[in-house]
## 1
Amino acid sequence: MPTLADVIRELESIYDPAWAESWDAVGLVCGDPAAEVRKILFAVDPVAAVADEAIEWGADLIVTHHPLYLRGVTSVAATTFKGRLIHKLIKNDVGLFTAHTNADVADPGVSDALARAVGLTGPLTPLQPSADDPRRGLGRVGALSAPVSLAEFARQAADGLPATAGGLRVAGDLDRRVQRIAVSGGAGDSLLGTARAAGVDVFLTADLRHHPATEFMETSGGPALIDAAHWATEWPWLTDAARRLTSISAAKGITVETRVSETVTDAWNTTAKCEDLK
């Protein structure tokens, strides 16, 4: 039976913590490295619903994309939701491990899975390559097998991503023919200029704010924009991460059972018109 330390070693061989941003907090959050691990749940967010799912399934470890803590703390008392989560995990012998920005820039990483989910084919290249390795980096650029209208691509992307209350927001001429696409899992505001410089037809990402998006569409004359839910753009990575861990572990004689959480942890759970709220 593999230990938590064994599993962490394999995860960090895939998603090297040295690749993480300096402000990030990745790696083991709680758990005994000597504990045995049989079942691993993969999820985007470390929240109560995911912890409950892990406990009900009998998981020994949760691997999340988003960190639980990004800043130093002086207490994990169960007076906050994060403290309560830590208490619940420890009481039920469930470890928590995070692969965040190190998974974003990995090859393959979060944006590779997003690109495949929305139908990009052929080779993928980083939108913003890492300084130390051009094969890694933020975002991905790829192509559709044939040109389609922006409206058709938006429908294809919506079908390929998990459903959320907000769906997809599209900026651009819906009849425009598009083929070369850039994607970036998670918040993509910082890559708007990079997407323009890449000469793509569409940039699909999440968390685009009003003013940057408006200025981009007014001044760039460049890519159309598709804004998806943050959670939805990162969820496809879970299957890839679970598959890679299972494969590399099996090659070394380590057997673990993995499961991808389908719990929707997007912060928004409905949309409504003002008249619907009266």
Note: DSSP finds ten helices and eleven strands in the chain.
## 2
Amino acid sequence: MTMKFLDIQDTVLLVIDMQPGFYPPGRRDVDRSALNVVFENAAWVVEVARGLSIPVVVAEEDPEKNGPTHHAIVESLPASSKIYPKTSFGVAGDPRIMEALDSLDRSTTVLVGTETDICVCHSALGLQEAGKRVAVVHDCVYSPKAAHDYGLQRMQAAGVELMSAKQLLYDWLPTLGQIREFRKERPQLSYPTHFSL
């Protein structure tokens, strides 16, 4: 089945557990450089969503223990965004978050977050089962080591769309005119330096 491009009028961005406290200094399995790139990419995607008036919903797992969402992501959020504590690994198991998503009346949910193999994967599969079109931004999600790939493989096998942050931008702005206008109006949103162009 051929999938159409993502429509900015029908999309919501969901940020899942982008909390640095998930990975305390004692965790020796964490690639800190790769994790920081994911946080940077996700903050860029959130800022692009804000620039395009795409609503953003944020979920935090056990914030009392894991702390708040990464500061760069919080600083990029649209003013209307709300942060919800998440009590289930997948957001579909959390009625408050599902109510927030459903109230936006948009059929497509784009996911960024941690961890790829558990909370992002559970959320993607649950939202898909609830009838949503689901896309996961693969360079904006993280799990340590092989767990990241396991999560991507499971989601892809289930029919979840995987795309890069760059691909997401071009789905949201699929014409040369739209891209040029967006960059002219928001020159600060140049690509992060590690994007391959």
Note: The mean pLDDT is 91.
## 3
Amino acid sequence: MSRTDLLMWIQRDGSSIVGRFLPLGARAELDGVIRDGRHEVDSDAYLMFVSIRALLRKGGMASCDSDREAGQIMALLNA
């Protein structure tokens, strides 16, 4: 799937990506960061980021590449 296709999918129905690809434990990790109180976190953006990253990894993208690509996609969504 191309970056453009993924961006269009997210813009049409981002909640389905989170619903289908959110890794187990992601919400618990987010809760821990929020409880810790040392970082400000946009919960929706975090859940979208880890879901996009999981989708990319499922497609065979390497860990470091999926982190970078998910970050770039999030930046484009927020531009």
Note: Residues 3-77 form one domain.
## 4
Amino acid sequence: MSVLDNFEQWKDFLGDRLHQAEQNGVPQDTINELAYEVGEHLASQVDAKNDEEAILRDLWNVASEEERHAIASMMVKMVQNEGTGR
């Protein structure tokens, strides 16, 4: 089973990666830009595996670049308290 199959597992995975980046001193702007790039990749290259991912993909696809950056930033905020180490 892929982490993309279950939204809660996906949030835990993202939370773990976020905490690793923060512990390694990655600046918040860089984290947000990486989240934007991941969003671009997922929206264009990966089929949604659940309803939550489908909604995020649909929002991403109708958003302007500025709105996409906002979505990426909100995803980072959403997973700040997620992860297997929390």
Note: The chain has one domain: 3-78.
